[in-house]
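Quick start: read one record
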Amino acid sequence: MKLFVRGYVWLVAFLIYVQTYRISNRNLAILFIILALFYLSQSYQLYGVRPAYLGDISFFRNSAIKMGTTFTGGNILNTHTLAYLPLGALTFWMSDKNILGKKQIGLSIVFFLLSFGLILMSGVRQALGVLIVIFALRLFLNKRRIISFRNLFTLLVIFYIVVSVVSWFGSEYLEKTLSQRNTVEARLNRDFVTPFRVLAIDPVFGVGFGGYPDYANKNYPHNLFLEILCELGMVGFMVILMCLGAFWVSRRKINMVRFRTLNNAYLFLLFTVFFMRSMISGDLTGNIVLLGLLLCFVKIHPLDLKHIRKTV
């Protein structure tokens, strides 16, 4: 029931976003960054969460882990909430073609620095990786020549700045990811062995919907594909793929990567955020948003495009 309700709500929300030209990506970005700041301020006012010294970017995650082990009923502070609110804000901001113009370059830099700072405070490493991918896509999406020296150089500069800032602040969680001495599992803090052991029990039909915790030491494998394969097997996985394939037959002429919504935004940027998150974190209930968003790549009528050109 939770899976159905959450999936339906997200599907409706994305359909409204895709097919309504009056929605402002800039206003959505500002709203998300305000929510992130509000979430951080409430953690200070209610629980006294604050940095121990200037430049302490691990304070929020340390406090979240400490409270999660002290109080019952789950985590009081959610690091992913603080991370994905500014990441979502940046995604909406970069989706807007007018904001990234030369006239808005100063405002865009300030917005990026504020969002980047909030992501650093969250301590969520995957959000930093998604951030770099989103910047790379935005550089390439609106260019006829996808591969160019300028785009590659800009991307390398952004990557170098992100890694340098992360290394300079010295967060223990981020240093763990960058350290060459750690294994891949240690860097990502993920168990890759257990999911394949569960999958080997019954690779054809799986261990049953929601049965992963009965055979593993965790509630879910932190990967959407692995969770479906473990619980529904190859048969269930193929059924889902066939359903999605049947839906996409009528949309085969749509360029998914360069698809624009009626409010002139690249939907693929938002899709990438949820796709990468579903590959590293969350379970099927939380990542049902990805399937809902996939169904929203719809064919826009030419009359709608003419209407938006007249109003913008």
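The radius of gyration is 21 Å.
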